[in-house]
Give the backbone structure.
Amino acid sequence: RIQYLKRHHYIEAVKEGEEKLYRLTTKGKYEVLRIRFLQHMEAQRKKKWDRAWRVAIFDIPEKFRKHRDHLRALLKDSGFKMWQFSVWVTKYNPEPALYKLLKYLGLHTYYALIEADCKKCNPRVVKIWRQMQRKKEEDEILSPRADFKIRKAKKM
């Protein structure tokens, strides 16, 4: 396992005196924060919904395009729904894990989280959310990756 982490540049060997120690690299620290965020969101989904929507808004400059694209993918993977390219919505609280990740990347100043109480929420918003959930489920069923799994299973 240590060789895997070294080979993929998650850790590096450091000599302190006569001892050989390992420390996380920048890539390793990012990966730890990313996994913590995904685990946090998974734990949030197991809790009862508190009827509050979280709207994540970011305006990340073009010079950080790579980070911005990774952030979009991460939000999608963690259950956020995109309303616009830089506006993402979820029913689950991403804090403090998302903020820690963005702070580490130096993007926290380009990010805001708005919490909207949905006790008197417009039913249209809830309907749109449900439609987005159904579409995601349909897309997963009809995705080429799912089709590949079905075809591969039939061959065996």
